[in-house]
Amino acid sequence: MHILYPVVLASGIFAAPAFALDGRALMEQNNCATCHAIEAQSAGPSFKDIAAKYRGDKNAMAVLERKMRYGGGGVWGKMPMPATANSVSDNELKSILQWILSLK
Question: Can you name the residues that pair with 81 across neighbouring β-strands?
Fold first, then answer.
């Protein structure tokens, strides 16, 4: 019976949650909070304002992913969004965006 326990763990049954990316933690790790706050505008719009603006937009992920990756401006004021560092993977970027767009 004790022999089966390590096999179950090695099979990956309990490993799936370790691969889920936490958008909020990634946002904090990658310094997004330097210019954005969750609820209040700072140098950039709040994450809740971004979520509200793009709610219901079927192209929101693609538009915001492009804007985050390459930078952009003119939507929220004069301060442009700088490009996101290449050290942030596409999956991490998507996780951050999914978290932002989930805010209400």
Answer: 72
Is the pLDDT at 15 greater than 50? The verdict is no
Q: Which residues of 70-104 are buried (b: 16+ CB within 10 A; e: fewer)?
A: eebeeebeeeebeebeeebeeebbbbbbebbbebe
What angle (nearest 5°) sits at the alpha carbon of residue 55, between those of residues 85 and 44?
Answer: 40
SS3 category, 53: helix
A 10 A CB-CB count for 50 gives 21
- pTM, two decimal places: 0.77
Burial class (CB in 10 A: 0-12, 13-18, 19+), 17: exposed
- Quickly count: other Cβ atoms within 10 Å of residue 36's Cβ: 21
